[in-house]
Amino acid sequence: MATVIKNAWVETTTEYRREFERVDESGEQTGSGASFPCDPVTGEPLFAELHPNAIENYYHYLKLVAEGKALDMGAVTRRNSYRHPAVIECARCHSQVELDDAFLSTCGKCGADYDGSGQLLAPREQWGEETGETLGDIFCGGQDN
Ligand SMILES: [Zn+2]
Hints:
Layout: E1 3-6, E2 9-23, E3 29-37, H1 52-66, E4 70-84, E5 87-89, E6 96-98, E7 105-106, E8 113-114, H2 135-139
Antiparallel strand pairs: 1-5, 2-3, 2-4, 5-6, 7-8
The structure holds zinc ion (ZN).
Zinc ion (ZN) binds at residues 90, 92-93, 95, 107, 109-110, 112.
């Protein structure tokens, strides 16, 4: 087993968006709309962060709300989670390897292959020896193309 430099971890971010949803003539939400980064308390868009086109779009949506063509959902809290992969030390060359794939991660320096748990795999020329598969079979999941 390779030396773990950093375990996988999940980063969660929170952002506040002023959201607008379009509605059709009968008042049904259409599933489209727009959102803008905003102050969580006032719901006021963070104009300093917005491109001029986005600011123009924000005022366009306020107009749509006034016309009954969109709903103002106010400040909506959005939480996003992002998984950072574990990092191991390559058993061969001591470079850092991110285990960013469940099945195969390759050292960028020496080409050593690891499975998702950080186990060093046999050299690729040995892959399929026991099953008669080629590397192409293995990488394509055995699908006929
Ligand atoms: Zn390596």
